[in-house]
Amino acid sequence: MFDSDSGGDDGEQSETRGLWRDRRGIEGLPIRLVIALVVGVASLGVMMSMVDGIGGIQTTELDARPTPEVTTVGEQSLTVGVVGGGEPVTGATVVVTAGSAGLDGPVTAETGPDGNATVTVAPTLGPNQAEGTLVIEIKPPAGGPYTDRRANTEVLVLAE
């Protein structure tokens, strides 16, 4: 394996050969790995139990329930119910914006104790446009466990 003509010191070569033959260096390695694994799993279990006790990590998706879901062109009122986990949500802000139907600008309202908000909209359609949509977004109440990440029901606007 080693050539004595390589210019290296003969003492270095024998020391290197000795390390390759020495099997004692790994004797304690498996038990140390097992101990590290057990301690790591125990620590992870303690950390997970601490995280479980923290409130507010889970959120509830909000959903909009507009009435009516189908409307016509012109000024009218829409009632938008906001629910989270099947229960009405108080203090959420409902924002209605133009989708493929026209609207002068965003219209907002806040939900009351019954989870409903009423907005007055005046949707328009373009020439030769038979239908369009109004988009509903919900801004959850501050400090609550709610979120609105999924798309909500859109209001269909039909030409008269």
Layout of helices and strands, plus pairs?
Elements: H1 10-21, H2 29-52, E1 60-67, E2 70-72, E3 76-84, E4 87-88, E5 93-98, E6 107-110, E7 116-121, E8 131-139, E9 146-147, E10 155-158
Parallel strand pairs: 1-9, 2-10
Antiparallel strand pairs: 1-3, 3-4, 3-7, 5-6, 5-8, 8-10
How would you describe this structure to a colleague?
By secondary structure, the chain is an alpha+beta fold. Helix content is 22%, strand content 33%. The chain has two helices and ten strands, in the order H-H-E-E-E-E-E-E-E-E-E-E. The strands form two sheets. Strands 1, 3, 4, 7 and 9 form a five-stranded mixed β-sheet that branches. A hairpin with an 8-residue loop joins strand 5 and strand 6. The N terminus is likely disordered.
Short description:
The chain is of the alpha+beta class and 160 residues long. Helices cover 22% and strands 33% of the residues. Strand 5 and strand 6 (107-110) form a beta hairpin.
The biggest sheet, with number of strands, parallel, antiparallel or mixed sense and barrel status, is: 5 strands, mixed
Mean pLDDT: 82
Structural class: alpha+beta
Q: What's the total helix number?
A: 2
Distance between the termini: 94 Å
Strand content: 25-35%
The tally of strands reads: 10
What are the low-pLDDT stretches, counting only 5+ consecutive residues below 50? 1-6
Radius of gyration over C-alpha positions, nearest whole angstrom: 34 Å
Overall geometry: elongated
SSE topology string: HHEEEEEEEEEE
Approximately how much helix is present in the residues? 10-25%
